[in-house]
Amino acid sequence: MKEYIVGRAPSSVIAVPADKNGVSGEHVRISISDSGKWEVEDLGSANGTFFKDENGVYQRVYKKVIDENTMLRLGQEGHNSFIFMAHRVVAPDSSYNYEFKQLRKILKKQIEEEDALETRNARNMQIVKLAAPIALVFCVVAQFTIPGLKDDANLNLWISRGAMAIAPVVIGMFFGIDTRKVKALKQKRLRMLTCPKCGYPISETDVHQMACSRCKAK
User: Fold this and answer.
1) What are φ and ψ of residue 127, in 5° steps?
2) Cα separation of 31 and 5, whole Å?
3) What's the pLDDT score for residue 179?
């Protein structure tokens, strides 16, 4: 079993900047068992320990099994907190090469999700465009299947107008563009693609170049 203490104390395995006063002296313990199991444990810190979940949202944690790619935040959200990937406790140098490689994987997965949604929305748009022709076919069929409809001009007109009005709504309910999902994915991208050093959102270009244009981490 290997154990690593992270905090503002000089003995911290990771050097936490002195101005990060939201971080306790001995804030968390990260343990790695002989079998390779990673675990993080808050050491009674004043401002809490948080881990980034699969949606990019930080959740408070007291003791939890993690992996070396888990992003951790020591302290409440803000400039007084300290963000790092668990792997950093075993990083051989100050390079963020490992973290940026993980960001590339996250970006690839994010793009796949966005492309899949875009394809589905484009398909749904084509289906919605068929609403009017479907309604027209319904009206024609109704004339020949509903007794007396063909000879009742007013009823025929009423059904035709109703079908033309309702068809787009009904079809749109099942095949409409999922704007909420589009917005959610955009927000998720901002939360997931953040610099492993400064914690601010970074661009695709930064990820591909494996360097943060803001804090110059690479």
Assistant:
1) -65, -40
2) 9
3) 83
The length of the chain is 218
23 and 46 co-located in one domain = yes
Q: pLDDT by residue (tens digit) across 61-109? A: 999 999 999 999 999 999 999 999 999 999 877 899 999 999 999 999 9
pLDDT digits (tens, 9 = 90+) for 138-166: 555 656 666 655 555 565 555 555 555 56
The number of domains in the chain is 2
| Same domain as 178, residue 77 | no
Q: What is the pTM of this model?
A: 0.79
- Sequence-separated (6 or more) residues with CB below 8 Å from residue 126: none
**Per-residue H/E/C for the chain:** CEEEEECCCCCCCCCCCCCCCCCCCCCEEEEECCCCCEEEEECCCCCCEEEECCCCCEEEECEEEECCCCEEEECCCCCCCEEEEHHHHHCCCCCCHHHHHHHHHHHHHHHHHHHHHHHHHHHHHHHHHCHHHHHHHHHHHHHHHCCCCCCCHHHHHHHHHHHHHHHHHHHHHHHCCCHHHHHHHHHHHHHHCECCCCCCECCHHHHHHCCCCCCCCC
Q: How buried is 121 (Cβ within 10 angstroms: 0-12 exposed, 13-18 middle, 19+ buried)?
A: middle
Q: Are 108 and 156 in a shared domain?
A: yes
